[in-house]
Amino acid sequence: MSVRGVIEHYQKYLPITDRTPRLSLGEGDTPLVSAPTISKEIGCEVYLKLEGCNPSGSFKDRGMVVAMAKAIENDARMVICASTGNTSASAAAYAARAGIPCAVVIPSGQIARGKLAQAVVYGARILAIDSNFDRALELTRELGEAFNLAIVNSINPHRLAGQKTGAFEIVDDLGRAPDILALPVGNAGNITAYWMGFVEYADVKHSALPKMWGFQAEGAAPLVRGEPVAHPETIASAIKIGNPASWRGAIRARDESSGLIDAVSDDEIRAAHKWLATQEGIFVEPASAASIAGLFKKSREGKLERGQTIVCVLTGSGLKDPEFALESGFHIERLAADTAVLAKALDL
Fold first, then answer.
1. How far apart (Å, rounded) are the C-alpha atoms in residues 214 and 181?
2. In 10 A of CB 341, how many CB atoms?
């Protein structure tokens, strides 16, 4: 059975022409699963959108497939992106599929090794600079404009067009929009795209609109502070961004939806990461846990109404950053290969 993918499934809502290649790795159609322990904890009906189930393991694939297809349609000589990890993995995967060279500019030593490994094996040219993501994006813009390269960061409107399909799927699965959509915010393209999707689909499905709740890490929270952060710091590398490219879109999504953008601490992210794994059986990268950390924070502050329907977007798989999980502390018992010894260890 062939999986349609984002372009085939939602082409009437996308900037697709007869010349656009129907590129796909089977992205989209990710699970929306209930979260019973979180629901019980906060008194709401909570669902989790598992974007780590996309082909390269993150939400980036939704937009990347459209951006890459349009780059091919426009005869691009090469695609290029700046990345904290997930964009580079996605761009490299779709470039390999499309047969076009790919270059990624990354901040040296600040990329989770799981994501870096993906870019390596997909065959991208990796350029590591001695600076942060914001400088990497500046350089990417300069190279793209000077040498006519296709930039596939979320400054590319085709990226946002593809990412909005996540909102379509949520409405299709629930039969309506949730009361609240909670998601991590880094470069702010995703919150911008989801709001675009909900607004566009509301006319089609006659659905109400959700409140958009975005959560940044405290050490990388320019939207909360109201000014860029020169040296962002957080354990959640995917949202370690000090000057989001989609700043205006995020603020528009917040304001038009009567939502909010707030910050959560690294300790809150760690706690939410552990909760998801041990209580819900879901393993995510640290940035994904920011939406759950934010939900718990708002519950403690009394900002939730009991019975509300909430969807949390979990943006990437935990296998993107296994070192984070392993560094959190664990113990392996080394025992003799004997049934009796194992039984005793298990108190059987």
1. 8
2. 12
Residue 88 near residue 126 (C-beta atoms within 8 A): yes
Picking from 274-278, 313-317, 333-337, which range would have the lowest pLDDT averaged per residue?
A: 333-337
Report which secondary-structure segment, H or E, holds 291.
helix 289-300
Counted residue by residue, the chain has a size of 348
> Is the Cβ–Cβ distance between 30 and 61 less than 8 Å?
no
Owner of token pair 């993150």 = 58
Q: Are 266 and 235 within 8 A, CB to CB?
A: yes
- Nearest to residue 3, comparing CAs of 47, 91, 67, 65? 65
Burial class for 299, CB neighbours closer than 10 Å (0-12, 13-18, 19+): middle
Q: What is the pLDDT of residues 72-124, one digit of tens each?
A: 999 999 999 999 889 999 999 999 999 999 999 999 888 888 888 999 999 99
* Closest among 152, 14, 22 to 87, alpha carbons compared: 152
Q: Report the distance separating Cα 62 and Cα 320, nearest Å.
A: 17
| pLDDT exceeds 60 at position 140 | yes
> CA distances (Å), 105 to each of 4, 6, 85, 134, 136, in order?
31, 26, 10, 11, 6
- Strand-pairing partners, residue 216, are 263
Residue indicated by tokens 């370690």:
240
pTM for the complete prediction? 0.92
Tens-place pLDDT, residues 165-210: 999 999 999 999 999 999 999 999 999 999 999 999 998 887 799 9
Q: β-strand 79-82 against 102-107: which pairing, if any?
A: parallel
